[in-house]
Every structure is written in C-alpha cells, then in structure tokens.
Fold this protein.
Amino acid sequence: MKILGILGSHLDTGVTAMTMNELMSHVQQPNTYEVVYLENYDFKPDIFGKQDPVLDKLEQKMLESDVWVIGAPTYWGNLAGQMKDFFDCMRQRLVRFDHTGGTHPDRFKDKHYLSFTNCYTGEFENFVTGVTDQTFRTIDKVMTAAGVIKIGEFVVPGTYGMKELPAKKKRICEKYGNKLNNVKKRDDSTMKRYIELFVMICVMALITMLIQLGLGLLPKTDFFTVYISFALIFFILLACILHFMTFVKHRRR
C-alpha cells in the first residue's frame, strides 16, 4: 500500500511539516510513503483544451496511492491558501461533472484520507469556539465529492512559538500512523449503517409500543399508523443528530 502525504504549508520546517514527518515515521514496510510539498509545485488551473503538466504529475501521484494524508494549517479560521488553491486547481480532475454541472465521484472513488491541521489558538479555546472546524469542513467537502473515504482527523493547537511537537500529539501521530498501516480497501458503508439504524429503531419502537399497548397506555385503534409515524419521525430526528455530530461537529482537541 502506498501513502501520499500532501503538505499545504508555507514552510517545510514548520509545525505542519513536523506533524507530517512524525506521522510518516510510523509507516511500516511493506507500505511505502511519499510527501508532496505543494510549495515546490508551480501548478496552474487547467484551461480549455490544455491541461497543466504540473497537475498531471500530482494527479498521477494521487492515482498511484491508496491513502492520502492531507495536512495544512488553519489561517483566519479556514484552510490555508496553498491547500485551498490546490483543491481549486484540481477541481476538474477530482470529480466528474454531469450535464447540469453536478459533481460525481470518479477515478479517486473509494481511496482513503486522513486530515490534520494546526492553529495558534489554544486547545480549550479551539474546543469551545471551533476555530479549526471550517478547515475540516472544506477538506471533507472536497473529499466527499471525490468519493474518498475518511479515516480520521486531528488538530495540533497552540502552535505559536512551538519548536517541537508535544508528547501528547506525538502519541496521536503514532496512533494514526499505525492506523495507516492497516487501512483496508472498502466501500463507503454510510447508507448501510443508516438502513441498519432504521431497522433497529423500527424493532425497538414496535416492542416498546406493544408493551405500552398491553399496559393500556396506547389506544388500540390506529395502532400501526401511530407506530409507523413514530418510527419515521424518531429515525429522521436521530439521523439528523448523528449526521451533525459525525460530519459537522469535528474533533477539536
């Protein structure tokens, strides 16, 4: 398995680069890795009838790899410009467009990615205010459109003046580095999980309402109408909450 690190920082010696190097240090044979420092690539957007040769090289590296590690700082509460520019320039290659301009996963579908960011904001403040949330939302939006499956994410906060990664963050890098060694190709099973959740809710709701019916707490008339409406409403509300907690509220510490 090949792992590709995509480093979108202004320095190749800063905290973002240190984090990337720490992660990759835990990649074990027979797995291999390569780190692409975007500052070294003078890429431009494709124009009609002419593709950018630098993007061709980067695209080939992405196609040849199984897992992407996407690392970039958070500036002004959002993804650093170098990485955002890369995503913008790669837009026509990451997805397939239909006749209405809608995007669909294409050649990168079912690859995997891990993302991380860092910020000057302290750990507690970032947890409360979510300074780094928009960075992850931007990365996730691009990857979801491309059909790439998420492994995880983490933040290195309080980086102002930081010369070395804290021991706590090194342990997190070790954890995710080891996880990179064991990524197994799989399809996104989100829909399957929601179907399983719906079945479980239907079964539990039926059992609960039958008990209530036996205790005389529910009217016997229109039982199944009440049951079906209850199961559907409960599932929709729970699915919305789970979606919010899983995809919107990111881990900030």
In short: The mean pLDDT is 90. The first strand starts at residue 2 and ends at 7.
